[in-house]
Design a protein that fits this description.
By secondary structure, this protein is mainly alpha-helical. The protein has one domain. It is 59% helix and 4% strand. A two-stranded antiparallel sheet has the order 1-2. The longest helix has 25 residues. The radius of gyration is 19 Å and the shape is globular.
Length: 150
């Protein structure tokens, strides 16, 4: 093999490694990174539906929706552990009327079905078009958000 071919192969390997590393780094970052990772896989729409971009709105979203999402994530095994249940229960305890009121709260009910409602009113459906690793990451991010509400 001549030197030019070796350099060309090495350059491609470096680019591939950099892209793979960037993707892994992005996966470990923030909700906005999640938006970029899922990209068109979520079936982004401008008026609700499966708009992964609306996940960023959860930063100002409701406690009830976060509690519902955590319930969904527990039920579907994207999150586990007693600490997760404690966060969910803590959020429900802060709601007026507590856990009983959650059964009637639209934010909680949507969350329990896998619908994240952002502060802008747009909904992201975790049940459609997202891979399990993306769903797990979304659940982890909502859990962090839920912890900040407590």
């Amino acid at each position: 093999m001549n030197r030019t071919v070796c350099l060309h192969i090495a350059a491609r390997a470096c680019i591939a490694a950099a892209i793979g590393g960037a993707a892994a780094f992005a996966q470990a970052q923030s909700l906005e990174s999640l938006t970029g990772l899922a990209g068109k896989a979520a079936g982004s729409t401008g008026s609700g539906g499966s708009n992964l971009g609306s996940l960023t709105g959860l930063q100002s979203g409701s406690m009830s929706n976060a509690a519902g999402i955590i319930e969904y994530c527990l039920k579907n095994k994207y999150l586990s552990g007693s600490g997760v249940s404690q966060v969910k229960d803590g959020l429900l305890g802060k709601m007026p009327g507590g856990q009983a009121a959650a059964q009637k709260d639209s934010g909680y009910l949507d969350g329990a079905k896998g619908l994240i409602t952002g502060s802008d009113g747009k909904k992201t459906d975790l049940t459609s078009g997202l891979t399990d690793p993306i769903k797990k990451q979304a659940c982890e991010l909502v859990l962090k958000q839920g912890q900040s509400f407590l």
